[in-house]
Automatic annotation (TrEMBL):
Organism: Zea mays (Maize)
Protein's cellular compartments: Plastid
Protein name: Uncharacterized protein ycf23
Keywords from the named record: Plastid
SUPFAM superfamilies: Aldolase
């Protein structure tokens, strides 16, 4: 079994704690498209990318996130099962080849792996991951660690250099000001990111109960999705602090899809997890499978 996720991530050579800083002035012109990547891509690579990005292009992507530092096989299995049977389009797990193999035994959904260590992605992709995510930083914020724009750009360049054909999603830290989030998103698009993910739920402190509280909690990531989706031409995934109430709002704001983690992970029962995923999928007007079929067999 791989070393504990937190130890591996904190020892990554490309990782360093730093306060977020504004992005330096952007290049005067956008970089040319990545012709070498297109040349290298095989027919299978192109087909994989099309399959992964299809839901985003249709503005109906629903990614269920188990957690960047969640290496517990039972927990990950429950989240993957809930995503599969609840009507999600993607599942996002910690970057570990054994977890990828576990997930592949439970679902045919495209599997995304998250990390802040680009060198960890290769083995997970070889194991079957179809998408990689630089992001899901919430566990680091809890340790007082933040990421600067320069760090995110550096991680993106390293990842794209090692994996030129993989679908790449990058989270823009909510610790940046909104104008700097937009600027970073533009630069990430130039560096070859395929998807921009927003966040902000962890920094929100709702003051109202019920529906009003759910909307308050989602406000930072909704604002980022609205602004960033108008600054870039690639899909934006709104994530962090979302629920069945606010997921449709994210799409209306301009997001091509939503990412949901804690709303599912906080539940201890896999049937309850499936029900929550289904509630979000139905709110987004996705076309879920029949409930009785999904709940008939739950094993891993």
């Amino acid at each position: 079994m791989a070393a504990p996720g937190s130890l591996r991530l904190l020892q990554a050579p490309s990782f360093a704690a730093a306060k977020c800083q504004p992005v330096a002035g952007r290049a005067s012109a956008r970089r040319a498209p990545r012709p070498l990547f297109a040349v290298r891509a095989s027919a299978a690579d192109a087909a994989n990318r099309d399959a992964v990005l299809k839901a985003f292009r249709e503005n109906r992507a629903l990614k269920i996130i188990s957690g960047l530092q969640n290496f517990d096989r039972s927990s990950v299995a429950s989240v993957v099962t809930a995503a599969d049977k609840g009507g999600a389009t993607h599942v996002d797990i910690a970057c570990d080849k054994d977890l990828v193999k576990l997930a592949m035994d439970l679902t045919n959904l495209p599997i995304c792996v998250s990390s802040v260590d680009p060198s960890a992605f290769h083995s997970a992709v070889q194991a079957g991951a179809k998408m990689v995510e630089i992001g899901n930083y919430d566990s680091f914020y809890e340790m007082g660690i933040e990421f600067s724009s320069e760090q995110i750009l550096k991680l993106t360049r390293e990842t794209r250099k090692m994996l030129p054909d993989i679908t790449l999603s990058v989270t823009v830290p909510h610790t940046l000001s909104l104008p700097d989030q937009m600027r970073l998103a533009e630069l990430l698009e130039e560096e070859g990111a395929d998807i921009i993910q927003t966040e902000g739920g962890k920094c929100s402190s709702p003051t109202k109960p019920g529906v009003l509280g759910l909307i308050e909690k989602a406000t930072p990531t909704l604002a980022a999705a609205y602004s960033i989706s108008r600054a870039v031409s690639i899909p934006v995934m709104c994530s962090s602090g979302l629920s069945s109430v606010t997921a449709p709002m994210a799409v209306t704001a301009g997001a091509a899809g939503v990412g949901v983690g804690s709303a599912i992970n906080k539940l201890n029962d896999v049937v309850a997890m499936i029900a929550e995923v289904r509630s979000i999928a139905q709110a987004m007007e996705l076309a879920p499978r029949i409930v009785s079929e999904n709940l008939r067999t739950i094993s891993y």
